[in-house]
Amino acid sequence: MEDRRSELEGIVEAARVATAAQFAELGARMDLRFTEFRSDINARFAEQREANGKLETLIERRFGDLIKWSFVFWCGAVGAIAMLARALR
């Protein structure tokens, strides 16, 4: 009976060691996958920041164009009103 008990304890201990090794291997693989995932996400964030910078530059350029042309049309309108006022005198 004592032999069976020690044999059973040996089997349980071997199973525990094997399970611990499997969990350690799984943990190492998960760490590797999370590291790869983290680097992929960081690369995508860098790409997005670059795209956002380009978009911001484009918006600033268009806003500058809008201000410039608004000023040109405003000057034209003021000139036209001044000429009309001079003609009506």
Question: What does it look like?
Answer:
- By secondary structure, the chain is mostly helical.
- It is 98% helix and 0% strand.
- The termini are far apart.
Judged by helices, strands and strand pairing, the structural class is: mainly alpha
Q: How do the helices and strands follow one another from N- to C-terminus?
A: H
What is the end-to-end distance?
127 Å
The share of residues in helices is over 70%
Number of beta-strand segments: 0
Shape: rod-shaped
If you average the pLDDT, what whole number results?
93
Please indicate the percent range of residues in DSSP E strands (runs of 2 or more).
under 5%
Poorly predicted residue ranges: none
List keywords for this structure.
mainly alpha, rod-shaped
Short account of what is shown:
The protein has 89 residues and is mainly alpha-helical. The chain has one helix at residues 2-88.
Task: Present the secondary structure layout.
Layout: H1 2-88
